[in-house]
Amino acid sequence: MLKALLWRDLLLTYRRRGEWLLPLVFLLGVVLLFPLAIGPGEKTLSQVAAGAGWIAALLASLLAVERLFREDYEDGAQSLLLLAPVSLYAMVQVRVLAHWLVTGLPISVLSMLLGVLLYLPANAIPVLLVAMLLGTITFAQLGALGAALTVSLGRGGLLMVFLVLPMYVPVLIFGVSAVEQAAGDWAATGPLALLAAMASLATALAPLATAAVLRVVSD
Amino acid sequence: MSAASFPVGNTLVVDSVSAIRGQRSLFMGVSAGVKAGDILQLGGANGAGKTTLLQMMAGLTRPHSGCIRWNGAALPAAQLALSQSLAWLGHQNGLKSALTPLENLRWALGVAGVAWQEPEAIRELVALGLAAVLEQPVATLSAGQKRRVALARVFLSQKPLWVLDEPLTALDQHIIPLVEARLREHAARGGLLVLTAHQPMALGEAHRVLQLGDGDA
């Protein structure tokens, strides 16, 4: 049952590649505009690289997650999911997993490339990848909760940004500090461990709230 | 279609259920029961609460008071058991517009826990007159064609309890007798059927109508 849901979400992404590409192009655009705005010098760019990459990844994640539940809610597929003989918690996990595979994962991989473009020191690149992989999991889980809360509002985007942004801030802080520590030849295990803890906690608990919200919204 | 019958012991009971929408009471203390082989049609004017009662019987909406029982166990505790036996058709079809009819059946039946049998699905879609659009995205189908795809999902579901909100909406006149025959066949096999409909339907002897809105039914 869960496999059918995963298959559906991945197939839908494939059918609507334009929609899928938007957050990635957005990420690319933001990072490529940085050298134009603040100058192409290697020293300046490498100083802001971690922060720029993370802000762009955060906004791209937010842009991607906003419509996660909207379409199912509008076309009635939500009722079919609510009435499936599987726990809604598991279904939310699958939907967020599918979402992360097509957004968080490519964003993380792309961010390595962007790190190179912004002169991030080579030894910080693997740390950036790991931090991004962990951070985008938290982004996806918390974003899904925000998307569920605003699913019944036709234009819930603005409200959702206000709901979710504060929850994204800790990931941003520790994500940037992991990369900067690695760039300064310090061990980045501390912030990475915190990012991992946040990802685990969000993955375990956020779907409980998301599932409860989806049930109430459709009532 | 397999001709296997369903267990005879299935019952869906509505026990003095009330619904409130906003400040207004839709219906008060409605009771009804459906057992294997029964067809229950909910009647009443627009706004009488037919859809609301249907959603309550599927477990999508909680009653304000009273309760719904599936095989003797009350919702929401019995939701999983009910969901395992339920095929739902709302006034929305629940189809993904970017997918073809076959792909839609595949995910929706898969999520409902029904094993995927492509030849069966194709046969059902062809029987419902959709042979020409099997490979087209649902977005390009007409309203009636979309309704047929949604009905095909119910017909292929192998579930004993069908809860259908206006199953005939947007359908051509000539396809309606086929759908009615399928519904009668379902009841004859020991299935339970609850539906709303605006037009009179030829559903045979097991067909009862519960009027909402004119006093307590």
Topology:
The complex is a heterodimer of chains A (219) and B (217).
Chain A: H1 2-15, H2 17-38, H3 42-65, H4 70-75, H5 77-82, H6 88-102, H7 104-117, H8 125-149, H9 157-183, H10 189-217
Helix pairs in contact in A: 1-6, 2-3, 2-7, 3-7, 3-8, 3-9, 6-8, 6-10, 7-8, 8-9, 8-10, 9-10
Chain B: E1 11-21, E2 24-35, E3 39-43, H1 50-58, E4 65-70, E5 73-74, H2 79-85, E6 86-89, H3 101-111, H4 118-127, H5 143-155, E7 161-165, H6 176-188, E8 192-196, E9 207-211
Parallel strand pairs in B: 3-8, 3-9, 6-7, 7-8
Antiparallel strand pairs in B: 1-2, 1-4, 4-5
Short description, anyone?
Chain A has 219 residues and is mainly alpha-helical. Chain A is built from 10 helices and no strands. Chain A starts with a helix and ends with a helix.
Describe this structure in words.
The complex is a heterodimer of chains A (219) and B (217). Chain A is elongated and about 55 Å long. Chain A has helices at 2-15, 17-38, 42-65, 70-75, 77-82, 88-102, 104-117, 125-149, 157-183, 189-217. Chain A has one domain (2-217). Chain A is built from 10 helices and no strands. By secondary structure, chain A is an all-alpha fold. Chain B has 217 residues and is an alpha/beta fold. Chain B has a single domain, classed as 3-Layer(aba) Sandwich (Rossmann fold). Chain B has a 5-stranded parallel β-sheet, sandwiched between helices. In chain B, strands 2-1-4-5 form a 4-stranded antiparallel β-sheet, with helices on one face. In chain B, β7 (161-165), α6 and β8 (192-196) form a beta-alpha-beta unit. The longest helix of chain B has 13 residues, at 143-155. Chain B is globular, with a radius of gyration of 17 Å. The model of chain B has no long low-confidence stretch (mean pLDDT 91). The chains are: A mainly alpha (219), B alpha/beta (217). The A-B interface holds A 1, 3-5, 7-8, 11-12, 15-16, 71, 75-86, 91, 218-219 and B 58-62, 80, 83-84, 86, 88, 90-99, 103, 106-113, 116, 137.
